[in-house]
């Protein structure tokens, strides 16, 4: 579904992404791991249109999407979340979800005068959809609570919920487990697995928690210094000498990368 060919992103003399090439197959949950500074988030930002690449190519289902703006990629079904949740803090959780779909009738001044019935019908449908998403994520009790008042883990669930308000084809999740307690992390994992199995979502997940990666991701891709080091199952990755050296600076194969 996604193919990255010889991608580079330079910031002056610093090569954050340095010739990375990888593929993401449709219907998979692909894990992206690597030490801090490996270029994982920068790669996400380039694929998702947040940053323009210095060189290289990104295709989605065979279509060249290199350098397209985030809103154009959103319309094609490519979505991403961020390590720090981006919620509308003064709005309720339900309202945060209702804001997601584009092209709503209420966005046009003409319709606020002459299309009120259509606006009301759309809002009822969006409200029903948002409530369905909140129930799916087991946070329906937060529907009317301001998004700025909920916990960090609940905000991550809400961000995942935003992807369910549109016809997402592939979702890039950036450290979805950061700062999340184990109970909520399990809830997030359950939601990702169900969206993948029942709704055919394709995911790419940056995460440092190897237990989380091991539970939901196959294959796993490891990056270091802006390059792709290895791809395979988590067990294959953990046994790879180059990967071990990138994490630990040593050739010891019996060390555990959990939490790296």
UniProtKB/TrEMBL annotation:
Q: Which GO terms describe its molecular function?
A: ATP binding; ATP hydrolysis activity
Major enzyme class: hydrolase
Q: What is this protein called?
A: Lipopolysaccharide export system ATP-binding protein LptB
What is the protein's species of origin? Roseovarius halotolerans
**Annotated Gene Ontology cellular component terms:** plasma membrane
Q: Which CDD domains match?
A: ABC_Mj1267_LivG_branched
- ABC transporter domain sequence ranges: 2-250
Statement: the UniProt record of this protein carries the keyword Transport: yes
The record's annotation in Pfam families points to: ABC_tran, BCA_ABC_TP_C
The cross-references to Gene3D superfamilies, in alphabetical order and at most eight, read:
P-loop containing nucleotide triphosphate hydrolases
| Keyword entries, A-Z | ATP-binding, Hydrolase, Nucleotide-binding, Transport
Enzyme Commission designation: 3.6.3.-
Q: Say which domain of life the source belongs to.
A: Bacteria
């Amino acid at each position: 579904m996604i193919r990255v060919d010889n991608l580079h992103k330079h910031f002056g003399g610093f090569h954050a992404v340095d010739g990375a090439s990888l593929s993401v197959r449709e219907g998979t949950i692909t894990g992206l791991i690597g030490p801090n500074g490996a270029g994982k988030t920068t790669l996400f930002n380039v694929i998702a249109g947040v940053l323009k690449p210095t060189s290289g190519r990104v295709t989605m289902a065979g279509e060249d999407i290199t350098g397209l703006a985030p809103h154009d990629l959103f319309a094609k079904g490519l979505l991403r979340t961020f390590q720090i949740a981006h919620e509308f803090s003064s709005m309720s959780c339900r309202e945060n979800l209702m804001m997601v779909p584009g092209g709503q009738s209420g966005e046009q001044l003409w319709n606020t005068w002459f299309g009120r019935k259509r606006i009301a019908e759309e809002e009822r449908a969006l409200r029903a959809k948002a409530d369905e998403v909140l129930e799916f994520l087991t946070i329906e009790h937060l529907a009317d609570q301001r998004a700025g008042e909920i916990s960090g883990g609940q905000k991550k669930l809400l961000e995942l919920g935003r992807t369910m308000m549109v016809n997402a084809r592939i979702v890039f999740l950036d450290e979805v487990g950061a700062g999340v307690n184990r109970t909520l992390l399990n809830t997030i994992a359950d939601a990702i697995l169900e969206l993948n199995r029942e709704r055919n979502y394709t995911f790419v997940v940056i995460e440092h928690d190897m237990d989380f990666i091991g539970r939901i991701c196959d294959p796993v891709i490891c990056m270091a210094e802006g390059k792709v080091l290895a791809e395979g199952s988590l067990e294959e990755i953990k046994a790879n000498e180059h990967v071990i050296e990138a994490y630990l600076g040593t050739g010891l194969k019996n060390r555990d990368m959990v939490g790296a």
